[in-house]
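Write out this protein's structure.
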Amino acid sequence: MSGGDIEIRPATRDDLPAMVRMLADDSMGAGRERWADPLPDAYVTAFDEIAADPNNHLIVAVRGAGVIGCIQLTYIRTLSRFGSLRAQIEGVRVARSARGLGLGRVLMEWAISDAVRRGCALVQLTTDKGRTDAHRFYESLGFVASHEGMKLAL
């Protein structure tokens, strides 16, 4: 994918419907997200809280006037690793119309570069065990499945 026709920038509230649509546009997301017009208030509230937090960043990839990708980055200061900073990646999505063109790699490389620029000691993410294609993709970027993740649904 040529990066020249893609703009990577902070998301605005106007980008939110496209972002939620991408989050809901796969087999797992369809069961846990709710895209509607208008959007449920919970998404607007979450966007506003994330946007107000200087350690949280919603980033979009735009081609022309359309949002075709998104990613959330959260910077976490930890006591471990000598008080290091780490980047947590969430919600990586590419619009169906732009899949297979390398945009996921562009977004991830942008996020990793931003983490390096901020002085992070590591970048981390979780991915559902059923997303085997995603596992191969993240491994191709140098990620290693070094830990076993656990979650408690509330």
